[in-house]
Amino acid sequence: xxxxxLLAGYGSRLGRDDLAHKSFLPFGNETLLSxxxxxxxxxxxAKAVLVLGHNHDAVRDYALGLNLDLPLExxxxxxxxxxxxxxxxxxxxxxxxxxxxxxxxxxxxxxxxFLDYVxxxxxxxxxxxxxxxxxxxxxxxxxxxNGVISAFITKRLLTxxxxxxxxxxxxxxxxxxxxxxxxxxxxxxxxxxEAAYEKTLWEIxxxxxxxxxxxxxxxxxxxxCFEIDTAEDYQEALDWSQAHPGV
Length: 247
Known about the structure:
This protein is of the alpha/beta class. It has a single domain (2-243), classed as Spore Coat Polysaccharide Biosynthesis Protein SpsA, Chain A (Alpha-Beta Complex). It has nine helices and 13 strands. It has helices at 32-43, 56-65, 85-93, 111-120, 160-165, 180-192, 194-197, 203-209, 231-243; strands at 2-7, 26-27, 30-31, 48-52, 72-76, 100-104, 107-108, 125-129, 140-143, 149-153, 167-178, 216-220, 226-227. The strands form three sheets. Strands 1, 4, 5, 6, 8, 9, 10, 11 and 12 form a nine-stranded mixed beta sheet that branches. Helix 1 (32-43) packs across helix 4 (111-120) and helix 3 (85-93) crosses helix 6. The longest helix is centred in the last third of the chain and has 13 residues, at 180-192. It starts with a strand and ends with a helix. One of its GO terms (molecular function) is nucleotidyltransferase activity. Pfam families: NTP_transf_3. InterPro entries: GlmU-like, MobA-like_NTP_Trfase, Nucleotide-diphossugar_trans. Residues 3-131 form the MobA-like NTP transferase domain.
């Protein structure tokens, strides 16, 4: 297995101009990025592909300076300010040739929760946590009757029809897996519809992808997973991590 970490974004909502990059948010003696890389090292992945943009040199130097036993590759998404993270995802997938686990760079999680997901979940799956169905911001997962994913809805509320037709699975927290064949099909779909997808978040093309590809969901029942977009998100994750040292 290989890995892709999406790290291009600026993170303007966080309000941390004291940090060179959002992934440098500290958690004790670690950062978000060091936690990601050490988790992947613990999994024994063949390589990690880091898709960079904002302050790319600082992120590259930091990652290499950790001196981990983990092969690293770097891609610069030079148009990250005017495109969505779907392009970063595709750039990363193009550099892989095995099954792959993908991580948004702004997610905090207990390492054992992440390792359990990667080792035990379906090869094509998204990690999902419980969420408020009326949270317009979160990446809401809708499930078909057979329990596989039908769609991802983000940045808006669900319609009454969507609530009637589908089961609400929770929030896609920001790490997921694709086998080699699915990754290739997703990349092909992207380039066939590049004008429509290049400025979108990955939730949009994956909703289309789910119409003809079976994508499973993995429910995470344990607490401790946070998507960090704002200072309030960071404080919540930091408080949790301080209350659960070593997790």
